[in-house]
Design a protein that fits this description.
- The chain has 98 residues and is mostly helical.
- Helix content is 65%, strand content 0%.
- The longest helix has 44 residues.
């Protein structure tokens, strides 16, 4: 579902979140921290084991929310493409029928 393989391919903060979550173990420095301050904070946290129980629960909830938003956005994009294709095919068949 997520097909971004480089930082340059990430177009918005949702792409950045998913990219970071998928690749976090590979980073020496946190990407996107200049563009999005939230990633600066994430870099400061660094090791999730250092979080309190409450902080970890908030972190987990944020990750869940970002994944839900991303999945919803992808579903909406797919549905929009399907509707657009159906409308285009309908218009094409109408113009061929004249």
């Amino acid at each position: 579902m997520f097909d971004k393989h480089t930082e340059a391919e990430c177009m918005d903060i949702f792409d950045c979140w998913i990219y970071i979550v998928k690749n976090m173990n590979m980073f020496e420095q946190m990407p996107f921290s200049e563009k999005y301050p939230v990633f600066r904070k994430l870099a400061e946290i660094g090791d999730l084991r250092k979080l309190s129980r409450e902080e970890l629960e908030l972190y987990d909830e944020d990750i869940k929310n970002m994944r839900d938003i991303y999945a919803t956005r992808k579903f909406d994009e797919k549905r929009g493409m399907e509707k657009g294709m159906a409308k285009g095919m309908h218009n094409l068949s109408k113009s061929n029928g004249k």
